[in-house]
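Protocol step 4 of 6: structure prediction from sequence.
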Amino acid sequence: MLRSFYFIIVPLVVFLSCNTIEPPSSVSSIPLAVEDVSCTEAWLRIKTKNISIPENITLFKNNQVMKVISLLGSDTLLYIDSLQRNKSYSFQASTGKNLAIISSGEVSSQTLDTTSINISWQTFVLGANEIQSTLDDVQIISEDNIWVTGTLFQNDSLGKLDNDIFNLIKWNGLNWKSERVYYLDHYGSKNLSEISSLFVFNENDIWFGDYTRWNGSKFISVDLNISLPYYILRSWGPSFNNFYIVEIVA
């Protein structure tokens, strides 16, 4: 008896699906950095990214909860005190956001150690003995470049008191050098007077309180457009275009 066998082949179609969900264009994060440390203090900076403000941030020190901070801005500087000298610390910040933890990376730093009390002092005698000199301000650019202003009386080459004062003394790493810095007043007259203050942006941009500027090669008088006599006490600023002067107008 002849039998027929029929085979039915059913093609199996496998459909592979592709994940078309793209990663988010921006990821929320908490960049944490150590800005500075001392023997017992640390300064941490938090810059939040794509996180709604205000937000509560938990700060960890050595994997232990240290404090909870309410951030009110996207750039925050934190001050940490009561640390131990010459010890390593790790810091981390995190926050809960929609049941997901957003955390910074762990940053580490070591506090400074205190110096010994074995200090060697060196004494310098500046000025003449006959009259008192006055040193008003000092700026240390480096250990071999120190500028001091004030009123310094010195003797001339014959040992007699010089009638003209020195208002700038500079340290070059080996010795002190006295100089006279002149300025032009509002009327264009050349004057020599006490310099009460100075401010250093860098070694080629130094401002004096008479008011004169050192540009790296020479002194330049700066006219403040003040017709009355004035006396500058202090000056400060983060840049040449953002500068503040405290003065007394006679």
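Step 5 (inspection) to follow. Confidence is low (pLDDT under 50) at residues 1-27.
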